[in-house]
């Protein structure tokens, strides 16, 4: 197994973390070394709270370099799809999510953290005053075309917004990208008005999916710095002041929007077999009780 020496290059990594970023425990143990990417990384696990985190974390220069044009075009070892190319299909999910959010909050200021090219905000715009935070200048500057200076290119650490300004804050597949989720959740709490709603979508690392796949689980990737379980994420939210928490497996808006979104993958009748896979996963996700979950997909609604 590779030694820790290869993770001591300060041009790539920060110093090793000695205390759990979530509960501050010293009971940290090695979990995995992920080597399927050009830049390897190591993840550790806290024996006290179960939090999994990259250790050492890539430094800010490296993290910022991930999210350039090549990240969205598939030209990097670590990349993500350009949502603009499939917006016609992604709209089914975005619109259904906004529809579900409106059951709890139907007006006010809406902040999407990790807003990318602004797809979710474009759907929320019909009902809310929309704002975004996006680390990538490439994606953030594009979303400014529709949302102007209400898009902050930066992070939660340097945002310009006032406390108690937002009715809704969304973190869709975002919290895992944060190096200090404890501080970030507290910032979200402060930004929300009374009875405001925080929506988080991420993976449950105690789900059987993650447990069985171990280091082969696809969620282990260079941009993911923090890995939660349902248990410790709920605890974090409660300790940050949130009073009511609802958990959905796998998502809050049902199966049909996901099937409609997947149509961008379908080029022939035989491609519809992907619907069987999506449907099976969706209903397998309904097998959960307490801290047990058959899959690792979850969405959490937390109310201030």
Task: Explain the layout of strands and helices.
Elements: E1 28-34, E2 41-46, E3 52-54, H1 60-66, H2 69-73, H3 87-101, E4 109-113, H4 119-124, E5 129-134, H5 137-147, E6 151-153, E7 166-172, H6 181-191, E8 192-203, H7 208-213, E9 226-227, H8 230-239, E10 244-248, H9 256-261, H10 273-284, E11 288-289, E12 292-293, E13 297-303
Parallel strand pairs: 4-5, 4-7, 5-6, 7-8
Antiparallel strand pairs: 1-2, 2-3, 3-9, 8-13, 10-13, 11-12
Short summary of the structure?
The protein has two domains: 4-64, no CATH class; 69-303, Rossmann fold, CATH 3.40.50.150. Helix content is 29%, strand content 22%. The protein has helices spanning 60-66, 69-73, 87-101, 119-124, 137-147, 181-191, 208-213, 230-239, 256-261, 273-284; strands at residues 28-34, 41-46, 52-54, 109-113, 129-134, 151-153, 166-172, 192-203, 226-227, 244-248, 288-289, 292-293, 297-303.
Features:
single chain, 304 residues, alpha/beta, Rossmann fold, 2 domains, seven-stranded mixed beta sheet, four-stranded antiparallel beta sheet, 13 strands, 29% helix, globular
Helix tally?
Answer: 10
- Total discrete domains: 2
Compute the average pLDDT.
95
> Tally of extended strands?
13
Low-confidence stretches: none
Please identify the top-level CATH class of the largest domain: Alpha Beta
Radius of gyration: 19 Å
CATH fold descriptor of the largest domain: Rossmann fold
Order of helices and strands: EEEHHHEHEHEEHEHEHEHHEEE
Q: Based on CA inertia axes, which overall geometry fits? A: globular
């Amino acid at each position: 197994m590779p030694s820790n020496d290869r993770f001591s290059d300060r041009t790539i990594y920060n110093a090793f973390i000695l205390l759990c970023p979530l509960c501050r425990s010293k009971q940290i143990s090695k979990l995995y070394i992920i080597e399927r990417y050009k830049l390897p990384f190591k993840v550790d696990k806290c024996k006290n709270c179960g939090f999994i985190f990259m250790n050492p974390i890539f430094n800010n220069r490296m993290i910022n370099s991930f999210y350039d044009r090549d990240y969205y075009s598939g030209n990097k070892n670590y990349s993500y799809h350009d949502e603009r190319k499939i917006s016609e299909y992604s709209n089914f999910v975005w619109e259904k999510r906004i529809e579900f959010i409106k059951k709890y909050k139907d007006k006010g200021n809406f902040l999407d953290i990790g807003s990318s090219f602004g797809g979710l905000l474009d759907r929320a715009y019909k009902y809310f005053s929309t704002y975004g935070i996006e680390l990538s200048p490439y994606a953030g500057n594009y979303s400014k075309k529709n949302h102007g200076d209400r898009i902050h290119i930066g992070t939660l650490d340097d945002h310009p917004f006032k406390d108690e300004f937002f009715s809704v804050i969304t973190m869709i597949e975002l919290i895992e990208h944060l190096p200090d989720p404890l501080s970030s959740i507290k910032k979200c709490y402060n930004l929300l008005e009374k009875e405001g709603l925080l929506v988080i979508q991420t993976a449950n690392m105690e789900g059987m999916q993650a447990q069985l796949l171990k280091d082969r689980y696809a969620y282990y990737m260079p941009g993911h710095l923090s890995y939660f379980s349902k248990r410790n994420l709920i605890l974090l939210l409660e300790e940050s002041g949130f009073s009511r928490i609802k958990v959905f497996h796998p998502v809050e808006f049902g199966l049909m929007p996901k099937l409609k979104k997947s149509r961008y993958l379908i080029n022939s009748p035989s491609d519809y077999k992907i619907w069987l896979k999506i449907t099976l996963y969706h209903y397998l996700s309904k097998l959960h009780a307490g801290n047990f979950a058959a899959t690792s997909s979850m969405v959490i609604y937390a109310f201030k």
